[in-house]
Design goal:
The protein is 53% helix and 14% strand. By secondary structure, the chain is an alpha/beta fold. The protein has two domains: 93 residues, no CATH class; 133 residues, HUPs (Rossmann fold, 3-Layer(aba) Sandwich). Strands 5-4-1-6-7 form a five-stranded parallel β-sheet, with helices on both faces. Helix 6 links the parallel strand 4 and strand 5.
């Protein structure tokens, strides 16, 4: 199924906001002459949902609904053997200011937290991502945080492959209990995938949504809020898809 992975990414962008809502609005425009009532409903739904999903009050509620794990308690992680940091969140193949690859904000957030945990625990680090993403993670950890990566997996296109590839690398080195670092919204699916390959997982979510109190601004559109809604809805859809693929044996562990 590896050849289907790029199509999954394309489909995701057409389905999730803002892509899906823009397509709904386009459908409304196309129907204006033939089905004016349906067209108006599509346009109102498109604009209204786009507004709502762009507000912090809605995006934060969606985000909290998929954050299943609290902050990690390092006092209970004393027998962990490694830290695994998952890719995702964007990178630049070449950042002029660094003369090399670099992580973008959401990925950088994971790396910063992973580096913090590595310095707190002294544990070795594995990074897993796809192609240049994994190398941007490695270079950013080394350059920005003075953390050396012990294992690097650059062949993982999705969370399933993150887990599969990481397990092979770690178990060869006798590692079975890990601290897993990914975004808080993504942690639920990640723990399921890593547990399924036989690893004992301590969840260390990064980017847990903060309590906000910005008055009227919580109800006004904001591009960051729309991105958080996009991420939360993706995770809501991702868990049943993961369960279906696992149950149907469309992918092999």
């Amino acid at each position: 199924m590896s050849w289907l992975l790029p199509f999954k990414t394309i489909f995701k962008h057409f389905l999730l906001p803002p892509g899906g809502l823009l397509l709904l609005g386009l459908l409304g425009l196309l129907l204006l002459r033939r089905r004016p009532a349906l067209a108006r409903a599509c346009l109102i739904a498109s604009i209204g949902l786009l507004w709502l999903l762009s507000t912090p009050v809605v995006s934060d509620a969606l985000t909290r609904s998929v954050e299943r794990y609290p902050t990690v308690d390092l006092r209970k992680a004393g027998n962990a053997q490694a830290i695994v940091i998952l890719g995702g969140g964007g990178q630049r193949a070449f950042a002029p200011e660094y003369s090399g690859p670099a992580a973008e904000p959401y990925l950088l957030e994971r790396l910063a937290y992973g580096a913090y945990l590595a310095k707190k625990t002294g544990l070795p680090v594995l990074v897993t991502g796809f192609s240049i993403e994994a190398h941007a993670m490695h270079d950013t950890l080394q350059r920005n945080f003075n953390i050396e990566t012990q294992w690097l997996d650059d062949q993982a296109y999705d969370t399933f492959q993150n887990a599969q590839n990481s397990a092979r690398l770690l178990q060869t080195s006798g590692v079975h209990r890990i601290i897993l670092v990914t975004r808080a919204t993504h942690m639920g699916r990640s723990v399921e995938e890593f547990t399924a390959v036989g690893l004992d997982v301590i969840a260390a979510p990064a980017g847990i949504v903060a309590q906000r109190d910005f008055g009227i601004f919580r109800y006004l559109p904001d591009p960051e809020a729309l991105l958080r809604s996009h991420i939360a809805i993706y995770e809501m859809l991702g868990e049943p898809v993961r369960a279906l693929l696992s149950f149907s044996h469309l992918r092999r562990h």
